[in-house]
Design brief:
It contains 11 helices and 13 strands. The model has no long low-confidence stretch (mean pLDDT 96). It binds uridine 5'-triphosphate.
């Protein structure tokens, strides 16, 4: 079955970037001139996704506004001879069929995904975490969809993390299948050193079969009292099996301060309008860094 639906969970509280996230969703933080979530929606669209559900919560209405038309602003740009900015303003409202749903209580990523059941129906679907921007030649979501098309199992987008950091992530038990695709049969969240299964960890993207919803219904709150998506994916991996793609792409975690700064600097260096002058600036300022 062709994958055309995606869910973007964006209802987290973003406590690691407080106080910036007190009134501003981290998903709307700008990376040069576009909010983080627009990069994510564009990746989904470039992967063949036509329908996107963004899970939000109270205070995140500006995400909806961003993907809507802005008639007053558009009229203002036209009357002030700034038509060159118009396309950029309108583009975000035309990317896909974008739906919004509120997660009424912040009960974890697994709970947020379970809110998408009636949107998804009985189809496999993509999940793109709302605070993970991934830049790549071939969209990572598309790399995962290809693996789903080939093996017919749920797919985890993963990369190796440094050995000293694996205890902060989840660790996947894998065996090679083909090229950068592996079979995943087990996983453990935030492992102690003796429980590490591999250095591969799920980073921001997956394809899930609709069976995940029944599993989520029966998943009790885990770490932090939240319903963890990894607990449900672990069950799926142990019973039906999942595949894992060692994806090709550069991931930026917009949920933490360092990730935000890395994304801003690296994407500014590549930006067609400011790239050259920003590079000069970085060269100059780096001379002053000890
Ligand atoms: P994170 O754990 O990275 O986001 O969740 P968070 O909860 O905002 O982070 P901190 O620890 O408070 O800083 C991964 C993704 O799941 C979403 C988040 O928005 C993020 O995109 N999420 C998390 C939800 O949609 N609902 C939740 O209840 C929890």
């Amino acid at each position: 079955m062709k994958i055309t639906k995606a869910v973007i969970p964006a209802a987290g509280l973003g406590t690691r970037v407080l106080p910036a996230t007190k009134a501003m969703p981290k998903e709307m933080f700008p990376i040069v001139d576009k909010p983080a979530i627009q990069y994510i929606v564009e990746e989904a669209v470039a992967s063949g996704i036509t329908d996107i559900l963004i899970i939000t919560n109270r205070g995140k209405e500006i995400i909806e506004n961003h993907f809507d038309r802005a008639p007053e602003l558009e009229a203002n740009l036209i009357s002030h001879a700034k038509e060159n900015l118009l396309d950029g303003v309108i583009a975000s409202s035309k990317l896909a069929n974008i739906f919004f749903l509120r997660q009424k209580e912040t009960k974890g990523l697994g709970h947020a995904i379970n809110c998408a059941r009636s949107f998804v129906g009985n189809e496999p679907f993509a999940v793109l975490y709302g605070d993970d921007v991934i830049i790549s030649k071939e969209p990572v979501c598309k790399q995962l969809i290809k693996a789903y098309d080939e093996f017919g199992l749920g797919v985890l987008g993963a990369k190796q993390v440094p050995a000293e950091d694996i205890c902060k992530y989840g660790s996947l038990k894998i065996e090679p299948l083909k090229d950068n695709i592996f079979k995943c049969t087990d996983m453990v969240e935030k492992p102690t050193p003796d429980k590490v299964l591999s250095l591969y960890s799920i980073l921001g993207r997956c394809i899930l079969p609709p069976e995940i919803f029944d599993i989520l219904d029966n998943t009790s709150p885990g770490v932090g009292g939240e319903i963890q998506l990894t607990d449900a994916m672990c069950k799926l991996a142990q019973t039906k099996g999942m595949t894992m793609v060692d994806f090709i792409g550069k991931r930026y975690d917009i949920g933490n301060k360092l990730g935000i700064m890395k994304a801003s600097v690296e994407l500014a260096l590549q930006h067609r309008e400011i790239g050259i002058s920003f590079k000069e600036y970085i060269k100059e300022i780096s001379k002053t860094i000890e």
